[in-house]
Amino acid sequence: MSDFIYGPTYSEMLHPETIQPGIRKRAIEAMTKDPLDPINLFNISWRDQHNRLRAEVVPPELTGVDAPIAVLYAKDFPTGSHKVGATYTVLMENQIEGRTNPRKHTLIWPSTGNYGIGGAWVGCRMKFDCIVILPEEMSQERFDIVEGYGARLIKTPGCESNVKEIYDKSKELQAQDPDRIRILNQFSELGNYRFHYHVTGNSVAELARELQQKGIGDGRAAAFVSSMGSSGTIAAGDRLKQLWPDHKVVGLEPIQCPTIYSNGYGGHNIQGIGDKHVTWIHNVMNMDMLACIDDRECEEGLQLLTEEAGWNVLVKRYGIAEEKVKKLSEIFGLSGICNVLGAIKAARFYGFGKKDLVVTVCTDAIDRYYTEMAKLTARAGAMDEKMAFMRAEAVFRRQKLDYIQEGTTEIRKRWHHLKYYTWVEQQGKTVQELNAQMSQDWWIREQNQIGQIEKQLVAIRSGFSG
Question: Exposed end of the chain (fewer CB within 10 Å): N or C?
Answer without folding.
Answer: N
